[in-house]
């Protein structure tokens, strides 16, 4: 009874929503390496969105960058710090095109199912989180079915669609991001000087014009329903070393500078001239650690 009474005046206890912005910010700051832009944009947008008790539209973030740079890591951190039961929460929904939408022939059917699924879940919990991984493999024309749900003022049968969070993840735009980061490095600039606006515009263009982006000629992009395009920069050797160090600590292994150095040395770096960035980010770190322990 008390729970129901509280929920009638409070706004977010209809599901196990326990947002902890400070913990999210701390986690981003402490455990994500080399991604100052993503850290900044994600913590800023998530906290602004959650502080607004009646947002006029959902929060829609689109993560872009090469493999192993931390896109999935940050999306899990967001989910972990919004829900007490973390990624196993029934209010966090993850879609993987190759698994959930494998056949381009069934797009009309997938469209119906996806919209029904999202609406049904928002009726259960207005603060639901929807994560769409591997957007570059999303069949064309599918994601646009969500367009009405992502815009302002979409209310059906009193369900509030405006409190949801959508995260789209893809490698689309990696060329733009990697080029800008390389130029910055070659000119001896600080990584922190990389211009966010320039990158966001470049990614938006690429996402809209690339027929492998999942958002090819999408009304979602055209109508500017994506709150922010979030760039993930390619990782350098020092970031690989930090990933290795952290993962060793998480395994309870201390003082193994030899393993940190060996793992960082074994990664493949590009371009050939300069060898600045790990081609697989930190993705291969756990497998390499296993070889050295
Ligand atoms: N910037 C980073 N800081 C700390 N750890 C990282 C970072 N990037 C990647 N990692 C680690 O590397 C592994 C792979 O990262 P993640 O799955 O987030 O990559 P991704 O960008 O989603 O790649 P993909 O596009 O291939 O899915 C994870 O174990 C993650 O913890």
TrEMBL record:
<dbReference type="Pfam" id="PF06309">
    <property type="entry name" value="Torsin"/>
</dbReference>
<keyword id="KW-0067">ATP-binding</keyword>
<dbReference type="InterPro" id="IPR027417">
    <property type="entry name" value="P-loop_NTPase"/>
</dbReference>
<dbReference type="GO" id="GO:0005788">
    <property type="term" value="C:endoplasmic reticulum lumen"/>
</dbReference>
<dbReference type="Pfam" id="PF21376">
    <property type="entry name" value="TOR1A_C"/>
</dbReference>
<dbReference type="GO" id="GO:0005635">
    <property type="term" value="C:nuclear envelope"/>
</dbReference>
<dbReference type="InterPro" id="IPR010448">
    <property type="entry name" value="Torsin"/>
</dbReference>
<dbReference type="GO" id="GO:0005524">
    <property type="term" value="F:ATP binding"/>
</dbReference>
<keyword id="KW-0547">Nucleotide-binding</keyword>
<dbReference type="GO" id="GO:0016887">
    <property type="term" value="F:ATP hydrolysis activity"/>
</dbReference>
<keyword id="KW-0732">Signal</keyword>
<protein>
    <recommendedName>
        <fullName>Torsin family 2 member A</fullName>
    </recommendedName>
</protein>
<comment type="similarity">
    <text>Belongs to the ClpA/ClpB family. Torsin subfamily.</text>
</comment>
<feature type="domain" description="Torsin-1A C-terminal">
    <location>
        <begin position="239"/>
        <end position="290"/>
    </location>
</feature>
<keyword id="KW-0325">Glycoprotein</keyword>
<keyword id="KW-0256">Endoplasmic reticulum</keyword>
<dbReference type="InterPro" id="IPR049337">
    <property type="entry name" value="TOR1A_C"/>
</dbReference>
């Amino acid at each position: 009874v008390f729970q129901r009474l509280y929920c009638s005046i409070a706004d977010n206890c209809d599901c196990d929503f326990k947002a902890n912005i400070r913990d999210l910010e701390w986690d981003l700051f402490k455990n994500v390496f080399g991604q100052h832009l993503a850290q900044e944009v994600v913590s800023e947008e998530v906290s602004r969105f959650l502080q607004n008790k009646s947002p006029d539209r959902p929060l829609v973030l689109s993560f872009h960058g090469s493999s192993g740079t931390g896109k999935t890591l940050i999306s899990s951190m967001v989910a972990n710090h919004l829900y007490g039961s973390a990624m196993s929460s029934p209010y966090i929904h993850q879609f993987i095109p190759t698994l959930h939408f494998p056949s381009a022939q069934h797009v009309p059917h997938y469209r119906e199912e996806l919209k029904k699924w999202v609406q049904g879940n928002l009726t259960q919990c207005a603060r639901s989180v929807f994560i769409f991984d591997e957007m570059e493999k999303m069949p064309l024309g599918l994601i646009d079915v969500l367009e009405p749900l992502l815009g302002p003022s979409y209310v059906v049968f009193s369900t509030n669609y405006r409190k949801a969070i959508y995260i789209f993840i893809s490698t689309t735009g990696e060329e733009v991001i990697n080029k800008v980061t390389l130029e910055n490095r070659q000119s001896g600039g600080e990584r922190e000087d990389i211009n966010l606006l320039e990158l966001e515009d470049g990614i938006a263009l690429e996402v809209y014009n690339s027929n492998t982006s999942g958002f090819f000629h999408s009304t979602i992009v055209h109508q500017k329903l994506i709150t922010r395009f979030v760039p993930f920069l390619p990782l350098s050797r020092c970031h690989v070393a930090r990933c290795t160090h952290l993962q060793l600590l998480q395994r309870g292994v201390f003082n193994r500078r030899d393993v940190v150095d060996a793992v960082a040395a074994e990664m493949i770096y590009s371009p050939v001239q300069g060898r600045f960035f790990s081609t697989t980010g930190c993705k291969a770190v756990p497998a390499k650690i296993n070889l050295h322990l």
